[in-house]
Amino acid sequence: MAEAHFSLAAEELFKIGPLPITNTILTTWIVTIILITFAYLATRKISPIPHGIQNVAEFAVESLSNLVESVAGDKTKVFLPIIASFFFFILVGNYMGLLPGFGTIGFYENIHGEKTFVPYLRSINSDLNTTLGLALISVGFTHYYAVKYLGISDYLKKWFSLNPIFLFVGIMELVGEFTKIISLSFRLFGNVFAGEVVLATASTKLFAFIIPVPFYFLELLVGFVQALIFAILTLAFMVILTNKEGH
Predict the structure, then answer these.
(1) Which has the closest alpha carbon to 237: 133, 132, 130, 143?
(2) How far is the CA of 15 from the CAs of 18, 23, 26, 153, in angstroms?
(3) CA–CA gap between residue 231 and residue 91 (Å, rounded)
(4) How many whole angstroms separate alpha carbon 104 and alpha carbon 125?
(5) Residue 226: is it exposed, middle or buried by C-beta count within 10 angstroms (0-12/13-18/19+)?
(6) What single-letter DSSP state applies at residue 9?
(7) pLDDT tens digit string along 127-169?
(8) According to the 3-state scheme, what is the secondary structure of 115-162?
């Protein structure tokens, strides 16, 4: 087993032309393939009486649909696909990072004259680029739906007004939209990266299979909660911004 390895930046494995492929990008491809395969197998032969993998899929989607409906009401069918995509992508990504071999199986290479360990696989949400991308998509879809439901005129009235007080409030709220990106991305990245550091630190050579066990159960809970928080915050932002009752 490799020694504890901490690196904020994802490690480059190889290049496709000028594009560097990091270990988090490789893991993202694997997570995507898993989700697509699961969706295909769950919907390949839909039965009126669900069983097996169809039963699991229906339970997961219905549970999430009920949660979204309690907040979004008649906008559930519109918001559910993006909310579910965020939740399942982040959840599977978080849990895959807990599998044996993640962050511990790799190779050594010389970087600036130092022998550095490069793992083949790494949790996708321990890379700030991934969480920042998810946050940008979240805020982007939120504003897209706001324009769709409000119209461009009412959408702009949320931020700009001839009344100086409302104009000031609108500009403050507009600044707040950028803080959503920072909040969503750094919360997810910070929790997942901190969990990786704790697990790597606890996995000493002598007690590698004993000490980390309680932390693994904790990370299972953290992985679920962080996926749910990201999805629920995105849902709340969408519901609030698409509300026609402005200031």
Answers:
(1) 143
(2) 6, 11, 12, 46
(3) 10
(4) 17
(5) buried
(6) S
(7) 999 999 999 999 999 999 999 999 999 899 888 888 888 888 8
(8) EEEEECCCCHHHCHHHHHHHHHHHHHHHHHHHHHHHHHHHHHHCCCCC
Polymer length in residues for the chain: 247
> Could you tell me where the beta strands, DSSP code E, fall in the chain?
12-16, 19-22, 106-111, 114-119
3-state helix, strand and coil shares in percent for the chain, rounded to the nearest 5: 70, 10, 25
In angstroms, the CA 11 to CA 20 distance is 9
Q: Read off the pTM.
A: 0.88
Q: Quickly count helices (H) and strands (E) in the chain.
A: 6, 4
Structural contact between residues 130 and 28, judged by C-beta atoms closer than 8 angstroms = yes
Counting beta carbons within 10 angstroms of the beta carbon of residue 184, is it exposed (0 to 12), middle (13 to 18) or buried (19 or more)? buried
Amino acid identity for residue 54 in this structure: Q
Radius of gyration of the chain (CA): 21
3-class DSSP state of 104: coil
| DSSP one-letter code for 73 | G
Model pLDDT for residues 176-229, shown as the tens digit of each residue: 889 999 999 999 999 999 888 887 777 665 566 677 777 888 889 999 999 999
Measured distance CA(169)–CA(178) in Å, rounded: 15
Q: DSSP class of residue 8?
A: S
DSSP 13: E
Tokens 């169809």 locate to 54
Q: Which residue(s) pair with 147 in the sheet?
A: none
